[in-house]
User: What shape does this take?
Amino acid sequence: MVDPGGGAVCNGTLHNQSDHCHRKNCTRNGMVKEAQQNGNSNFYKPIVESFEEAPLHVMVFTYLGYGIGTLFGYLRDFLRNWGLEKCNAAIEREEQKDFVPLYQSFENFYTRNLYMRIRDNWNRPICSAPGPLFDVMERVSDDYNWTFRFTGRIIKDVINMGSYNFLGLAAKYDESMKTVKDVLETYGLGVGSTRHEMGTLDKHKELEDLVAKFLNVEAAMVFGMGFATNSMNIPALVGKGCLILSDELNHASLVLGARLSGATIRIFKHNNMQSLEKLLRDAVIYGQPRTRRAWKKILILVEGIYSMEGSIVRLSQIVALKKKYKAYLYVDEAHSIGSVGPTGRGVMEFFAMDPRDIDVFMGTFTKSFGASGGYIAGRKDLVDYLRAHSHSAAYATSMSPPIAEQIIRAMKFIMGLDGTTQGLQRVQQLAENTRYFRQRLSEMGFIIYGNEESPVVPLLLYMPAKVAAFARHLLKRKIGVVVVGFPATPLAEARARFCVSAAHTREMLDAVLEALDEMGDLLHVKYSRNRKSARPELYDETSFELED
Amino acid sequence: MATVAEQWVLVEMVQALYEAPAYHLILEGILILWIIRLLFSKTYKLQERSDLTVKEKEELIEEWQPEPLVPPVSKDHPALNYNIVSGPPSHNIVVNGKECINFASFNFLGLLDNPRLKAAALASLKKYGVGTCGPRGFYGTFDVHLDLEDRLAKFMKTEEAIIYSYGFATIASAIPAYSKRGDIVFVDKAACFAIQKGLQASRSDIKLFNHNDMDDLERLLKEQEIEDQKNPRKARVTRRFIVVEGLYMNTGTICPLPELIDDIDLISANMENSLASIGGFCCGRSFVIDHQRLSGQGYCFSASLPPLLAAAAIEALNIMEENPGIFAVLKEKCKRIHKALQGISGLKVVGESISPAFHLQLEESTGCRERDVKLLQEIVTQCMDRGIALTQARYLEKEEKYLPPPSIRVVVTVEQTEEELEKAATTISKVAQTVLL
Assistant: This one.
């Protein structure tokens, strides 16, 4: 039996053709190359993902840094408790001082003592559209980040490497957005009712038909918020007596939806097919714990692109597993819709799979379409069921009409229904920008995580102080980056995360890369030991004729 | 000295061995052999009996059939035949092709088609585009958001406010940010679904008290006090919260706030009704609200509110502050229609006389919820034919803890004129008479 994952399936277990190195691809240095077939069995596309480990001294210094920060934290807490230092945080009311404290003091230890020192790198307010260039409001703190004040100056034309603007559709108003303006003037903004009551507008129906066409599925349903799409629909699909197999690094909305559903949750290691298969086998063979009854259904929750790692789900392998063990697959394409695939249709197109293989397509409109909201698409009976039983349809206000119109406009643009090929060009431009950016960064010697083709690029910094220095210095050079630390990432793996956009020109990317090069040397963050040379690899050549 | 003692002991032992009676030696020998056997025998393994062979496992995998992902939905489920509104859902609404007066959308202050709101949103659209492309922490904070939070805090006379991009998510994220496993929450039985989901996500102990019944709440609090005295160490780390709604959506009643408490810690509200925008906000003291900026899930992990909606909300606040007289006008209209709808045979009005969203329930239920729903739907459809747009209050019947009885939702807005209110009252009255008799 041929397995579209480059391995042979024998007796029900997936054997990868290469050696044991493969299974530990997440913990060893180096690159992972896997051959992957699509249905045609004539076309091989290598998937290249890397998660290089840092040198040992870096990890030691990182933990040391946290240790020193913690010690100082205890010292400062002590001084604050005894009144030797002014306490700048808000405190409880006098009358409520004898109540049980509202917050665990340890829960806030990290916030008070570590996050507070570097918190000027987050929540930076902007005052223009989040396009490839934006304006950041300058703010300073007089009391070490406890409070901020705005100086009134605006830092103009900062290069935006932080916003999720993959296709460059988030921009100031221009004539192409005329339909949005018209809809705003006709329909207004609010809806004031739920989908079940008086809140279904003809705009919603138009949008849903278009989404179904875009994804090449039977039907779709849209919701006003992407986070709520997950947290309110997973409980409608599964309940007690069902099993959810969720990836280790799934987003908070998927985790919340899974918890609210009441089903049993089991977690498999990130993108690790052996771990998933083991869980599936155990679930089908042994059934529910203690009672040994069969599970009612099994739902696998994965994401298209994982935003903190930049990795792409191994869709073909998961579909093979799902078919063998008769599980259902739910793919959250929040970051991958519109940004991967030859025409921007997401991971399904990236892996050239049949839309009927994935049971539930979920995605958001925030990232590639420059609007807000989410959708769930799939077979008609699934969508009909959700129309009747989704928590959001019964209790939450429906999507605002101008937002719906913006999504309609963006989708038509990408699909080419507006009569131009600009949409397709943008998708291709994004792919080109992504490859260029990633290639240059790994040539410089940074540790970059994730798949070669994913437009989300995490650059590892490890030490909390470097994280802060990185973001501050780059803002001084008029580049806006996003840095992430604990608790969104593991404690010792703080990183900067770049989002490449189709609207970035080559000059902008070069400016950023130059600044990053200098930053890397200044802060000594070029940890990679696998520097790729700029010359092409000879063994990919098909002929070795000398060029004369 | 030691070696002599050792030698002496050894000699004694050997001598004892020679002098021991035979049966003693045999017994000791048997015991030693038994110990050796126990040490080396295998432990009793339970799974040996249930270890499946590989073939059996493959058979199980082949045979297992899961339930279908979704059960089939009947074709005439009301959600599949929903009302489609063509055009804006404002005062004059076109539902399913019929022109009606809108008594179903929560447009209390009539701001859904206010030109000032649209102009403010348009200005924001021109400057910022539509989406924010990021959560609040990652360049998704616009100056419009900060303005809106300031204005809301001032309007509600609190220290700080925080906005969410979805009304439902506001309270459903706020509750689990403060109340964790092991804490106790006292909540009203008629609380809306969003509060129920927030409580479920928080995994706290939930104690329900009868709707608007302060004596019941007091009884529960006293019981809790007795529990605390039994276990003071646990009581010292258990936080207690009370959650009530200002105006209950499910019953149209108002909570008796003065009896309850003298100062509120957290107010959570929805911008989707009066403010004719989208989203919600929480306000209160900085000490309380600031915590949500890092632990409110719907705030940290979700994209921020599109700026055009925030700008519209600011303009709505402006309008509300400029003519505070509309609130009195709304109150008058509520009282009027409340009075006009009393005395319809077969239907009773549920809700306070000053509540702009109240329910009409059947006076006597037929005994079966489905038949009740069908009757009410008939009334709603006929009213719509006559130009009054109404809707039934919709719930997810299997998910609610205390399912309210089926009812028609009536919403009063400032834009409805006296004639329209009269017309609505007479239409409902006539239709109810024909349908229910």
